[in-house]
Structures are given as structure tokens and as C-alpha cells.
Amino acid sequence: MSKKDYYDLLGVEKTASENDIKKAYRKLAMKYHPDKFSNASEKEKKEAEEKFKEVNEAYQVLSDPDKRAKYDRFGHAAFENGGGGAGGFGGFGGFEGFGNAEDIFSSFFGGGGGFGGFGGGRQRGPEPGADLRVDVTLTLEEVAKGVEKEINYRRQAKCKTCNGTGAEPGSNLKTCDKCNGTGKIKVTQRTVFGNFQSVEECDKCKGKGKIPEKKCKSCNGTGLERETVKKTVKIPIGIEDGQRLRLSGMGDASTEGGPNGDLYIFIHVKEHDFFVRHGDDIICEIPITFAKAALGGEIDIPTLKGKKSIKIPAGTQNGKVFRLKGEGINNPRGYVPGDQLVKIIIEVPTNLTDDQQELLRKFDESLKDKNYKMNKSFIERFKDFFRG
């Protein structure tokens, strides 16, 4: 089923101001809030929940100037997988980063996670550590053959002294006296729409339910420390500028005992002195003299594998393209390698001496129509055009 227009969902015009969008969202969010349907039928609850999610999704796009501009230009396609660039939109793909309706509503009205009859008391696992980013720059030659690169970066890791417990070696962990070991606390917030109760992570034990009797001196009870990581990463053949690699679990350690975040390696490819990449093919322009183009001969050209000689036939025209099979980029999926396209640019001589100009005039006068097939054809078509 196709998605509904976001402006229609909120009941606003495409020219609506940010304030108009916020007012419309506030009204609809309260209208379809699941707490209002606690005594309704299952069908009505489901319909309200779906409507609530749609309204929140629309608000998340239209309340953000950048997302709104993309939506106005591309519609829903801007946020589908792969939309908005190599990494998708809103983080690392698709609608990732919008969260669920509960999180959006809580963020808008200043609450935590969980409210009323819609996801209230929902138990989440420990939050993972933060994702990290490392930028790697490659040459086109490295892209063509694949390469290994050593990366260095800093990350948050488990404290080696206490093994991440936060307790000084020899001391124990005790039950958190704020959450009674649950790792969660209930928070009630008053708003103009009434009281909303949410379940949040305990700020004292960070959701662990345990606190150290005596804090570790190395990490001050956090269970974490900074470390430098050196790692050799294999960069696959044929990777493109702007792409990224994901190394699972190589990011920051979690403050809550959850899994590590991920490490994302962003690829940058240097501009080459000779080549421009087009898919798996590479293109280069080679200047030759007028005499070489007319008489033919061999010329040396650069390739990703070194110097190579190619034959220029007599009478080669400006813009002629020669294809060198298999001299392009190796395909990462094992397909046939790309080609190298060599475009010929005939350079017209400048700064001629009087003698050279005279020789060139005599040479030009010696030529006949058969020597200029394109010129002859043009003149004939030109005459026919004005004759008609």
C-alpha cells in the first residue's frame, strides 16, 4: 500500500509554517493517543495506533527543514532504503533514526519511554555503545586491486582493572537503593494534557540494578576507560568514493553492560591525475599532435598497471575513443573487469612563425575534397539548406 501524503496526514498546506505543523501535530497526537482508546475494541485500538504512528512519522519529516526539503522534492522515495545518498536517510539507512511512535511522542512532550496503554512498562535491553567513524583515503590504484589499511582510533572500552564492573578489585556490588535492583524508575510528568507516566533508566546505577560498594580507582566507578585501537582492515576491490564499511562491535563499549557499538569506515578516493572513474570503467583524455592524427603512429598512454603503447591509425579524428578491454576497475562481485576508454584530443598548434604559417597555407591549398570528407558533406548540406 502506498504511503499517504504527509501534509494530508497533518491536515496542513504545503506552505504551512513550522508553528502550524507543530500545532496540527499536537492536536492529532492527543486525538489518537492510545490512552484515549484503553476501553475501545481491539480494532479501534489498532486503527488508533496506526494513525498515531503515521502522524508521528509525518511530523518527524515536516518539522525538520532538511527532511522536509527532501520530501518536497522526492516524496517518500527520499527516505526509502538507499534514498538520500549511499547511507540512506537519517543515519544508516531508510527511516532508521525516527524511532517508534512512543519515543517520538515522549520527545515532543518532554517525557521518557513508555506511556499509558501504548508500550507502557516496555522493557528494553541495555543500550549498546556509541557507533564510531574512521575516514580512510585511497588512490584509484588501490581501489582497482584492493588493499589493506591500518587504522588507529580511540574508543571507550571496559576498564581492565575492574573488568567493567565499576567496583574496586576485592569489593562487591550491591543492589541499587534507588531502583531496588530493577534498573528502572517510574517518572510522572505533568503537562497541559494531563499526567503521563514513563519508565526510565535508573540514573544511579545506569540501568544495571547494581552499584559498587567501593568505586574502582582506575575508572571512578564507571566501568569504562579510553583505549587506542590499531587494526588492519581489508578494503574490498572496486569500492567507491562515499561508500562505507561496517565493523560490528568495534565501537564504544556500552555504559549499561550492553553490546559494543559499531565502527563505520568512510571511504574517500583521491582525484587521479589522468583517470575519471565511471562505474568499473576508467576514462582518460590523451592529447596528440595534428601530424600524429593525420599520419598515424604509436603513442604511450598511462594505465592503472603502468605504461602501455597503443596504435593511432592515420586519419584519426578529434574525440575518437579507443577501448582497452579489462584495463579498468576489477569488479567486487567477480564480474568481468571494466575497460579503459582513451579519448583522443587533437591539439591545434599555436604561436606559429611566419614560415610555419606559410607552409601550413601551402599544405592546406594542396588538399582536395577527398581529404576532407566531413567538410565536403557539410558544404553540400549547407547549400541544400539555403537552396530549399
How far apart are the first and last residues' alpha carbons, in Å? Answer: 58 Å
Total beta-strand segments: 15
Return the string of H and E elements: HHHHHEHEEEEEEEEEEHEEEEHH
Low-confidence stretches: 81-104, 106-123
Q: Largest sheet at a glance?
A: 4 strands, mixed
Helix content: 25-40%
Mean pLDDT: 82
Helix/sheet category: alpha+beta
* Dominant shape: elongated
Portion in beta strands: 25-35%
Radius of gyration (CA) equals: 33 Å
Strand order across the largest sheet: 10-11-15-14
Number of helices: 9
Short note summarizing the structure:
With 388 residues, the chain is of the alpha+beta class. It has helices at 6-10, 18-31, 42-62, 65-74, 101-109, 140-145, 290-295, 354-366, 373-387; strands at 132-138, 147-158, 173-175, 184-191, 194-201, 210-212, 224-235, 244-247, 263-269, 276-278, 281-289, 297-303, 306-312, 321-324, 340-347.
